[in-house]
């Protein structure tokens, strides 16, 4: 169903894009990028510096030459040349086939992001926070928020790194914010009417409105300085401090704890502000099948079982659609199991798999050097003779042999926590590589359909990155925790906008250029920022006005608001709504 939905959306956007004129998007440019020269055309009529979206206006026989000769058509980073593939490899008559394949690959990239973040990135962050002995509140607003928002933040950082895709970052950050605070929050109120936690809601809403106002101000000024970028990150640090302080005050007022729940009541967290992940342990049913007598597995058997992404007992219990989706995820999970170690503090052995973890000593660093800058560093040859990836493999092999000879299969070593940091780094590189491909393929689709990066960011990128939060929050609400799910709607996106924009612009700055210029040339950017601010003001007023009693009427209003915003955004993109010019 998701594939058919994306394809039908692509077809609708293609038809609307053909009927619409070109629409410029906000661009983030450094001052050095302003001296790229004026747009001009060569005698053959092929653009030198023209907008790459002009390619469809040329004859189909000139598409490949236009893409190859136009600097604006060069995709930064990534392993695949999507523009060259669609305009040079596929014949013009097979353009719908190319779009279909790209749409399927786009869906699979979202699957890669979700699997990596859920099963590898978040568990390692949880292990790191446990090893550092952080409280639940601090871990929730730092490591857990980073784990949940990793796809959004990495997508924003990658998009801000290229001036031509900055609109994707603006659209995705604002678009995901509107989607989560209206559709997801409204869905929670529809599924399970509840009473919202007053202080956490007011605190998160105020911080988020401040973040949106700062972003609106930066767009209005047209540039972001080093101090402003650091201010975004500083505001998030202040938010973490506020969460910790509010939790401490709340516990002092309540006498350092709550009474234990009754047998028929679900066990609630001691503080409504704590957002603990509600996932199931991968070792379900393991206690039932544990042998009574001691049994020592061979290293080969441990390696084979650790590399198996399928659980036969769980496979038999699940419905057919779960099995079908699992088949699509198996290749991704297998590659991730080979390259990303996972430390699980909830298991007795901390998920120590000696043969596999020794293999990770080789594969994880090799993955990092081959994905950093799309393999540019890994393929570099030292003195023109020996490649960097070969050196990494050699050193990793020596360390793996030493660890294998000095450890046992039954007991993890004292330095096993180091594997959590290695797994965090490896999974982050996987997410960054997938986010780079995601941004490039969205820009390619925008060029094909003559759509702005902003509308692609607020629709496809925002929806794709928010789909996991949507299902997890609605499931949490159905299970009897609507307050926790509602708090997660506002708390999680604060991290996304402050760290996504702040870190994205900070990494784009250099020692000689400490200013990143933002050029919101499209009316859609202002509609997007205004709609997000208006939705936050509506909730900030409506929720206390209802004495924090949120029911179906509130949910319906939020969903209708999002549908109205989406209609206005699309009409603006296709120039049905435009500013009157003198």
From TrEMBL:
An individual GO BP term: intracellular calcium ion homeostasis
Record domain Sodium/calcium exchanger membrane region: where: 103-244, 420-570
Lineage of the organism: Eukaryota, Metazoa, Chordata, Craniata, Vertebrata
GO molecular function terms noted in the UniProt entry: calcium:sodium antiporter activity
Name used for this protein in its record: Mitochondrial sodium/calcium exchanger protein
Record keywords: Antiport, Calcium, Calcium transport, Glycoprotein, Ion transport, Lithium, Membrane, Mitochondrion, Mitochondrion inner membrane, Sensory transduction, Signal, Sodium, Sodium transport, Transmembrane, Transmembrane helix, Transport
GO cellular component: mitochondrial inner membrane
Catalytic reaction equation(s): Ca(2+)(in) + 3 Na(+)(out) = Ca(2+)(out) + 3 Na(+)(in)
Transmembrane annotation, as ranges: 94-117, 138-160, 166-193, 205-223, 229-249, 320-343, 384-405, 417-435, 441-463, 484-503, 523-541, 553-572
Organism of this sequence: Anas zonorhyncha
PANTHER family: MITOCHONDRIAL SODIUM_CALCIUM EXCHANGER PROTEIN, NA+/CA2+ K+ INDEPENDENT EXCHANGER
Residues covered by region (Disordered): 30-49, 259-284
Membrane topology listed for this record: Multi-pass membrane protein
